[in-house]
Design brief:
With 219 residues, the protein is mostly helical. The chain has helices at 3-17, 27-44, 48-57, 73-83, 88-101, 115-126, 130-143, 161-166, 171-177, 189-213. The radius of gyration is 18 Å and the shape is globular.
Length: 219
């Protein structure tokens, strides 16, 4: 199996599928996750082909955009890989990684992950943090017609994936329900280090946001 050729083919499919995406899950998100996953792999190790394929395919059928079907991505990725001539063992490993990657709620424990799964999940999570994380959160919220902020509507730490997936809160809540929790849910030392700066940036963003919101606190 020529994996370099397979990866190129998958890049083409994903690039054309995700081109006109306006929710922060566009091709450039996939590209950043792919590049970050390759970077993490170069330091942390793990099977490079599995990591590359899972990073490229991790959002192929996300519950947030497929009509709410949970855990379907792995299956769709598996079928596409076989269609492109990939061996079943590799496709199966990629499927397992993809099914575990997505965030499922504040009080929902992450799946036990292989090193490959940890690396792809770390790369995906790092792209939800920092300046890009802020941009993506508001792009997603706007696309779903969600308000920026409703002070009376406070965050909920979800106990199940279903509750998390069906929540329709304003975007500032998303920081408390997911984004600020991610720094403690990264796995590899390299990602944990990169996450620190991004986390601090989001804290500073929120501080400034409330300062500007509360005009009466200006002194
Ligand atoms: P995951 O599978 O872990 O949710 P994704 O790669 O699908 O990760 O990306 C999730 C992105 O979607 C995050 O960057 C986040 O900003 C955005 N997002 C998801 N849910 C919401 C929400 N309720 N409000 C705002 N942004 C959201
Ligand atoms: Ni993603």
């Amino acid at each position: 199996m020529n994996y370099d050729y397979l990866i190129k083919e998958i890049i083409q499919v994903i690039q054309s599928n995700f081109e006109e995406e306006a929710t922060g899950h566009d091709w450039h998100h996939i590209e950043r996750v792919y590049n970050m996953a390759c970077h993490l792999q170069s330091i942390e190790g793990g099977n490079k082909v599995i990591i590359q394929l899972a990073a490229l395919l991790h959002d192929i059928s996300d519950h947030k955009f497929n009509g709410g079907i949970l855990n379907k991505g792995g299956e769709v990725a598996y079928d596409l890989l076989l269609e492109k001539g990939c061996d079943a063992a590799t496709a199966e490993e990629v499927k397992n990684v993809i099914d575990c990657v997505s965030f499922k709620g504040a009080n929902v424990e992450d799946h036990a992950l292989t090193l490959e799964g940890k690396i792809v999940q770390d790369a995906d999570r790092l792209d939800a943090l920092g300046a890009i994380g802020v941009a993506r959160a508001f792009a997603f919220g706007g696309n779903k017609n969600r308000p920026i902020y409703e002070p009376a509507n406070t965050p909920v730490l979800h106990d199940t994936f279903e509750e998390y997936a069906n929540a329709k809160s304003h975007t500032i809540n998303h920081f408390y329900e997911k984004l600020l929790l991610l720094k403690d849910r990264l796995h590899t030392p390299t990602a944990i280090k990169l996450g620190e700066e991004r986390h601090l940036f989001m804290e500073r963003f929120l501080e400034q946001f409330y300062k500007e919101w509360n005009v009466n606190t200006i002194n």
